[in-house]
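Supplementary Methods. Inverse-folding protocol.

Structures were first reduced to a discrete structure-token string of length 180. This string, shown here, constituted the complete conditioning input.
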């Protein structure tokens, strides 16, 4: 009976949720965004890290809540030039010279010059952190006014979900990308 067997999609979503919960609960996780809408504040991306530290919620700029990689999974649509998640770090929170960010990303149109994923204000005394996908399928990340690293053209496939991660080192001016 097919009704008794779980689909590949259901199994994948369960694995994602288990891994996400482990990551969220890890004391080393500074902030964690699950991209699930908060019904009380639809313009906010909630920091759900369980580390007991100060929460750093993201402010949505021209983003639209949509279904994500899995039917029951939330996501944000960045379909305008100014669409982004803005993170404002409180004073004293800019203590990380090296950090990693990752997200499931699907670029559905090449018509926008810059698909901004995250913009950090007041990241450090060197400038603002940015992470975006360019029109040619490039990934651009760095600290403005300090350094910026761009991947080769065609790095990001269009119309397909992919797991993207960036490791930024503001001391050395290096950014490494990982795509799956």
């Amino acid at each position: 009976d097919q009704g008794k067997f779980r689909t590949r999609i259901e199994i994948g979503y369960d694995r994602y949720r288990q891994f996400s919960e482990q990551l969220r609960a890890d004391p080393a996780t500074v902030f964690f965004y699950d991209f699930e809408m908060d019904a009380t504040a639809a313009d906010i991306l909630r920091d759900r890290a369980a580390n007991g530290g100060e929460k750093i919620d993201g402010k949505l700029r021209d983003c639209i809540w949509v279904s994500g990689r899995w039917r029951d999974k939330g996501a944000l649509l960045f379909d305008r030039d100014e669409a982004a998640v803005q993170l404002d770090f409180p004073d004293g929170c800019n203590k990380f010279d090296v950090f990693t960010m990752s997200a499931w990303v699907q670029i559905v149109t090449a018509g926008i010059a810059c698909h901004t994923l995250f913009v950090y204000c007041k990241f450090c005394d060197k400038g603002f952190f940015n992470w975006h996908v360019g029109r040619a399928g490039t990934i651009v990340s760095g600290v403005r006014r300090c350094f910026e690293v761009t991947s080769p053209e065609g790095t990001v496939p269009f119309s397909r979900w992919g797991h993207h991660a960036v490791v930024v080192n503001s001391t050395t001016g290096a950014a490494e990308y990982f795509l799956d």
